[in-house]
Amino acid sequence: MSENAKTPADFWFDPLCPWAWMTSRWMLEVEKVRPVEVNWHVMSLAVLNEGRDDLPEQYREAMKTAWGPVRVVIAAQQLHGEEITGALYTALGTRIHNEGRGITDEVIAEALAEVGLPAELLSYATSDTYDKELRASHQSGISLVGEDVGTPVIAVPGADGQKVAFFGPVVTPAPKGEAAARLWDGTLLVASTPGFFELKRTRTQGPIFD
Questions:
Q1: Which of 61, 66, 34 lies closest to 151 in space, CA to CA?
Q2: How far is CA 178 from CA 26, 30, 69, 184, 210, in A?
Q3: Which of 26, 39, 170, 172 is the most buried (most CB within 10 A)?
């Protein structure tokens, strides 16, 4: 990697997940304070939880609505290019999480309009046209970390330059400025440590959207 090259960070998200949303806002802040370029990818909590009978009823219902946004994002990628992914995710997540509106056709339609995508993409929310591509994107992320985690998944260069992926970091509120930079530096540090797998504590606070 040349001296002026940006460090790549691959980020897998499901628009439904508030914790992925928090981490994604941190990554946008990191791009401002470190030479980093985020590559956005879709993963799907609905795919991850397929066939599970032990889910609480409320979560099972949430998984039914989870298909819509990821299908629309995948369709947008396939038809309009991957470079639209980050902007569409931001438009969706702002409405779903910051505004607390959840997942509705209106929310998806507004997000598409905000980033200049055609309204017809909304029809893919209930279509399996690009489910093969959705599952492939999901698998590319989850295969790096294992089936016992959810979103977000982040992959960064390890000590040998090869991708090292983790679930997380799970953080709230999203760090800004130098705090964001320090967390990023720490992420690279643990990724460069052979055999490092997990650092965790019980969450005592819900996501803080700002």
A1: 66
A2: 11, 9, 32, 10, 17
A3: 26
